[in-house]
């Protein structure tokens, strides 16, 4: 007979977090034939990708930080200094990241999350399609998830 008495604890515990991640990964892998096929392959590794635009003095004018995983490019951060907005730096960085992901890493798709006050219109203009809106994340702000087919 299994005991139904459980103790709930709080607090960050690195060992338990590692155990939680590994057990969740094992459960997900067991439940999904697609994840099972992916596990242990080169495509199962998150590989960082970063691009930088420097001004004439060598200062950071714009940057893009992303990673690739499972034939997807995931754009984590794209920023252009206010003094350089409108010069096409964001478009150039994004296009180069997509090219690298497609040609060098075999990515088929790209995804990005952005807030309503940031750049959903910019990404739509780059061919991204809206797939999800989360209202009040955080309160009063909408988060958008957009994707793009790279092939």
Q: Which residue ranges are poorly predicted, with pLDDT under 50 across at least 5 consecutive positions?
A: none
Structural class: alpha+beta
The number of helical runs is 4
What is the helical fraction, as a range of percent? 25-40%
The shape is globular
Radius of gyration: 20 Å
The end-to-end distance, rounded to whole angstroms, is 55 Å
How would you write the strand order of the largest sheet?
1-2-3-4-6-5
Major sheet details: 6 strands, mixed
Order of helices and strands: HHEEEHEHEE
Mean pLDDT equals 96
- Tally of strands: 6
- Chain oligomer state: single chain
Strand content: 25-35%
Structure in words:
- The radius of gyration is 20 Å and the shape is globular.
- The chain has helices at 14-31, 33-38, 89-105, 120-125; strands spanning 47-54, 60-69, 72-80, 109-115, 129-134, 143-149.
- It is built from 4 helices and 6 strands; from the N terminus they run ααβββαβαββ.
- It has a 6-stranded mixed sheet.
- The model has no long low-confidence stretch (mean pLDDT 96).
Task: Please tag this protein with its features.
single chain, 151 residues, alpha+beta, six-stranded mixed β-sheet, 6 strands
């Amino acid at each position: 007979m299994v005991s139904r008495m459980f103790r709930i604890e709080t607090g960050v515990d690195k060992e338990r977090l590692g155990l939680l991640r590994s057990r969740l990964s094992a459960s997900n892998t067991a439940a999904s034939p697609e994840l099972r096929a992916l596990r242990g392959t080169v495509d199962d590794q998150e590989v960082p990708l970063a691009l930088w635009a420097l001004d004439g003095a060598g200062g950071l004018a714009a940057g893009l930080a992303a990673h690739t995983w499972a034939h997807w490019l995931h754009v984590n951060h794209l920023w252009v200094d206010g003094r350089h907005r409108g010069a096409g730096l964001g478009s150039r960085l994004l296009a180069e990241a997509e090219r690298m992901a497609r040609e060098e890493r075999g990515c088929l798709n790209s995804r990005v999350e952005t807030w309503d006050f940031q750049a959903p219109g910019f990404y739509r203009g780059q061919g991204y399609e809206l797939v999800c809106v989360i209202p009040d994340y955080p309160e009063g702000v909408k988060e958008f998830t957009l994707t793009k087919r790279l092939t």
